Amino acid sequence: MALTVPHPCGVVPSRPGYAGPFAAVVRRELRIFLRYPSWVVGMIIWPVLFPLIYLFGSRALAGPEGQGLSAFARLAGTTNVQGFIVIGTTAWMWLNMTLWAVGTSLRTDQVRGVLESNWLTPVPRFVLLLGTAASHAVLALAVLVLSLVEFRVLLGIHFSPSVSGAAAVIALTIPWVYGLAMAFAAVVLRFKEANAMVYFVRGVFMVFAGITFPLSVLPDWMARIAAYMPLTHTIEAFRAALLQGAGPAALRVHLAFLFWSGLLLLALGYYVFRTVDRLMRRVGTVGHH
Amino acid sequence: MNRSVPDNAVELERLSKRFSIRTMRENGARRRAVQKEILAVDGIDLVIRRGELFGLLGPNGAGKTTTIRMLCTLLIPTSGRARVWGFDVAEQADEVRRRLGVVLAGERSIYWKLTARENLEYFAALYQVPRDLARPRIADLLERVGLTARADDLVERYSTGMRQRLALIKAMVHDPPVLLLDEPTTGLDPQAARNIRDLIRHLHHSEGKTIILTTHYMEEADQLSERIGIIDQGRIIALDSPQALKRSLGQGSVLRFELVGGKDDLEGSLRTIPGVHTVTVERPADDGTRELILHLNDPGAALPRALDAISRGGGQVRHLQMEETSLEDVFIALTGRRLRD
User: Fold this and answer.
1) Residues of B in contact with A14 (CB under 8 A)
2) B196 in any annotated domain
3) A47-76: pLDDT as tens digits
4) Gap from B106 CA to chain A (nearest CA, Å)
5) How far is B130 from chain A, CA to nearest CA, in Å?
6) Which residue in the set B122, B123, B174 is minimally distant from A12, CB to CB?
């Protein structure tokens, strides 16, 4: 038998670093997403439809002459009810898309059978996860911008944005979202089920973070919990940046909270995922579905 | 990392894997869940030389896939050690992954919503192959398996055989020295399976790849492997070349009788016939027939005497068949069961 050793070390020369694998995961996710036209259509339509429920509800509740608006302004600090609701719901949807994308993408790969192919490569698993999250963050950001433009043009909702303020909120929101996304991916990996967890956490976020109402209407105990949720600070800071033109300095309390919760949740998410990953390698159920 | 090329591609030392599974137990009228320990791999010692085409043959549940999954770092061994290309699978998983090409779930191990080229580019990036090296290599791999003309079609439009070929070259995109192929032809039509086998032969003979193949198709293991490990209940119960394994049952043929009736000690009397190497009796079927399998060194001398012994023992021969010894016969002789049981 002729024996030809392919390479002195047995593998083709490899390029160090994880930028290439990270970019490859982002490209893969975007390509697959764009090959489902219904997903694209849904992504454009749903963020506009969803806030309309609350917008029309708020018009009805304001009374025929809009008397309720002054009461709302006292509680929310703005008379721009439509802007208040649109920013709350749009930010919530943006976070949802990014937050759940990691877990659901992991689950989809598990069911498709490609998860193990990915995990057999020498790239750290959190690079694969973050690549997935990044691709959905890109899509979600496009949705965010598109939605705000659509609301401006179609419904005449007025925004007074501080670009630097909004950019700072986005930048400091991404770490806590990624941390939570990794923890969520670990849950999916362990329990092979995404939906129950998604609905539970989504519901909690919706109620506690005040996406359509000012937090001052919450009972005290709920308001105290809301104050420790990073989503609350993201939405509040977004509203201030986009409706009142608040810059990073004016947003420093929210930004500081987001910074520290980002560090904490990233570390926690990484630890939980590593622990569950090792458990899965012991029990051998990575590819099970 | 540069290091000398090892003589052994794979080394297993008392490798074991124990699983704890939940099972339901009847307790009177009630059922309750209990934990049950299963020893899937039981202290395997094995060395696979560099450049060898090694077949791991065994029935479903024998421990083949568990062994492969430990080798490819998806599972952590309970005890013992496994090294691939000199690297420990538990301690140096990344180095092991760089040197392994793995086909586990066959056609499901690739993205159907991407094209073949996009799949290969994607996995090349994950294996950190520089782009200028990846492009010509991908073109070469596609050409080799006859997928160049369809390289830019979505994989969902491929036949099962095409997907399986793509899964195989996906495992080679980083040019690994060791390939692990878990049941690579399962579910394929005969022509597609033949194409995959030809490709495996080519990879072995022309490129010197070390290939570890698991299969429950004995003909496939027989045709492809230089050495075969027969695995049953987590242990390697025979290890040799296919020819040597078959020779272990004698030089000649296999004689299969389908019988009705016959004394219980028929097996003993057949064993004393000159020219009979081993005798295996299978469990009786529902209709009362049972199969006797005789491995013969001298079929000409043994056949008339065997027929005579059966007749004297009160047995009636329903069917008789003489054939060449196969690996299935080796497995039956070793375990008393068929591979597909």
Assistant:
1) 98, 127-130, 174
2) no
3) 778 888 888 888 788 887 777 777 888 888
4) 9
5) 6
6) B174
Give the predicted TM-score (pTM) of the model: 0.81
A128 to chain B: which residues are within 8 Å by CB?
126
Name the residue among B85, B97, B122 with its Cβ closest to that of A28: B122
CATH of the domain at B266: 3.30.70.100
* Neighboring chain A residues of B76 at a CB cutoff of 8 Å: 278, 281-282
Q: What ranges do the domains of chain A cover?
A: 21-63+72-280
Q: How far is residue B324's CA from residue B339's CA, in Å, rounded to a whole number?
A: 17
Best residue in B3, B126, B168 for a mutation probing chain A (most A CBs within 10 Å): B126
Residue B248, token pair as written in the block:
């272990």
Shortest distance, CA A193 to any CA of chain B (angstroms): 18
- Other C-beta atoms lying within 10 Å of the C-beta of residue A52: 14
Whether residues A23 and B1 touch (CB distance < 8 A) is answered with: no
Query: Of A8, A11, A27, which has the smallest distance from its Cβ to B98's Cβ?
Result: A11
Record: contact A21-B125, CB cut-off 8 A: yes
Residue B254 inside a domain? The answer is: yes
Per-residue pLDDT of chain B (341 residues; tens, 9 = 90+): 445 788 899 999 999 999 887 777 777 777 777 888 889 999 999 999 999 999 998 888 889 889 999 999 999 999 999 999 999 999 999 999 999 999 986 677 899 999 999 999 999 999 999 988 999 999 999 998 889 999 999 999 999 889 988 999 999 999 999 999 988 888 778 887 888 888 899 889 888 899 999 887 888 888 899 999 999 999 999 999 998 998 887 767 888 888 888 777 788 888 888 888 888 877 777 777 888 888 887 778 888 888 888 888 888 888 888 888 888 888 888 887 776 65
Q: How many domains does chain B have?
A: 1
Q: What range defines the domain where residue B259 resides?
A: 250-324
